[in-house]
Write a structure and sequence with these properties.
This protein is of the alpha+beta class and 395 residues long. Strand 6 and strand 7 form a beta hairpin.
Length: 395
């Protein structure tokens, strides 16, 4: 089940002849003059960069930039960290955005409640595209408020549950989980997320013939994978080939196993040598790519099996490339030391390899031949299946 998320944003400024200058005037109440505001392109699932950054003067700032068509944007302010202004603009628009910034009591799961600045009462005029976007987008603010109420309703029960030592008093803990109160809370949460999913899917389907269909997929789903291919298939051919349609298509189209997997460069941690997948494949008969993470239990449990197979066949032409998806380098290095991995190792710090290979889960495993063609993958390249396959290949 997909849960709604905050916009993931990036910039892609194109200088094609189809581009036209788009302007957005901001009138912001509640921010100091000189405050830096940035506008970013939304929905590209890439690293965030500003299209333009301007300073606020007398409560006003103006963005002016080239655009090729309807796009989603986000406006950020350096003093406002809790939310952003989400809007849509078309090429050639001359739009005005009014908003105010207020102090609000916010909640952080780590540090508890704190006071932060938030954008409120956002109004945009002068853009038909933005009017339609505001009318059609899933109301995530309302969903978040509804979820807060749901969690508050169950908080007394959850606090009682947290006070029970599960190890010392398993019967009491189990009894709480089997209670009618817990089952009702669980049912309410399932119904809430079902409502969220239906709301988002409905917005996508309703806009299958325009740019907002794929845009809503990109900005409301935590991840996109082949599981969402049927939603993409409902779009018109024009929408599929649009700016956001192409981004969705890349995410939901399965990787071809009929041709070599895409190449990638990496620097081996043990030797400091920079190389790439194709070079490693050329030097070996078979290469096992193990995309893993230190926190992944199945990944760690499979390591002894891979080690035993590596020892059996490393002199016969088997190489292993371990690619870590760890967000923190320290976690990866600690795991490397604990596991003493004897093969090539690198960390996918910017997730470029994971994105290239459309990784949706850890471990993701591919056994390749010398031309980087897939011999086996995932469950077919782990455990007994890996042992049997390698025994067959090296007989």
């Amino acid at each position: 089940m997909k849960r709604f998320l905050f916009f993931v944003v990036a910039v892609l400024v194109s200088w094609c002849t189809n581009a036209q200058t788009t302007e957005l005037e901001l009138n912001i109440d509640g921010l100091d003059d000189g405050t830096q505001l940035s506008i970013m392109l939304a929905g590209t699932l890439s690293n965030a960069k500003a299209i333009q950054t301007v300073g606020l003067e007398n409560g006003k700032a103006v963005f002016s930039f080239d655009s090729e068509g309807p796009r989603g944007y986000m406006v950020l302010a350096e003093q406002v960290t809790a939310n952003v202004i989400a809007l849509a603009l078309d090429k050639g628009d001359r739009a005005v955005c009014k908003a105010k910034v207020v102090d609000e009591l916010l909640s952080n799961g780590t540090t508890g409640e704190f006071t932060g600045k938030v954008f409120k009462d956002v109004e945009v005029t002068g853009s038909a595209v933005c009017d339609k976007y505001f009318a059609e987008r899933p109301d995530r603010d309302a969903m978040k408020e509804q979820y807060k109420l749901l969690r508050a309703k169950g908080q007394p029960f959850l606090e009682k549950l947290a006070k029970i030592d599960k190890a010392k008093n398993p019967e009491a803990y189990l009894s709480m989980l089997q209670s009618a109160e817990y089952k009702k809370l669980a049912q309410d949460e399932r119904e809430f997320f079902s409502m969220v999913e239906n709301s988002i899917k409905g917005a996508v389907s309703k806009n299958k013939d325009n740019w907002m269909g794929p845009f809503f997929m990109l900005t409301n789903y935590n991840t996109l994978s082949v599981a969402e291919k049927p939603e993409f298939d409902q779009f018109s051919e024009e929408v599929k080939s649009s700016f956001y349609g192409k981004i969705v298509e890349e995410k939901v189209t399965p990787m071809s196993m009929e041709k070599p997997l895409p190449n990638f460069e990496f620097t081996d941690y043990g030797t400091g040598v920079k190389t790439n997948l194709y070079e490693v494949c050329k030097k070996n008969k078979y290469v096992l790519i193990d995309i893993w993470a230190s926190w992944c239990g199945p990944c760690r449990r499979e390591i002894p099996n891979v080690k035993s197979q590596y020892e059996l066949y490393k002199d016969k032409g088997l190489q292993v490339i371990g690619i870590s998806g760890d967000a923190k380098e320290a976690d990866w290095l600690k795991a490397l030391q604990e596991e003493a991995l004897p093969w090539l190792n690198a960390r996918d710090a910017d997730m470029s390899i994971c994105n290239l290979y459309k990784v949706q889960f850890f471990p993701t495993v591919y056994l390749l031949d010398s031309e980087a063609r897939v011999v086996a993958s995932n469950e077919g390249a782990r455990g007994d299946a890996l042992r049997l396959k390698l025994a067959e290949l090296f007989k």
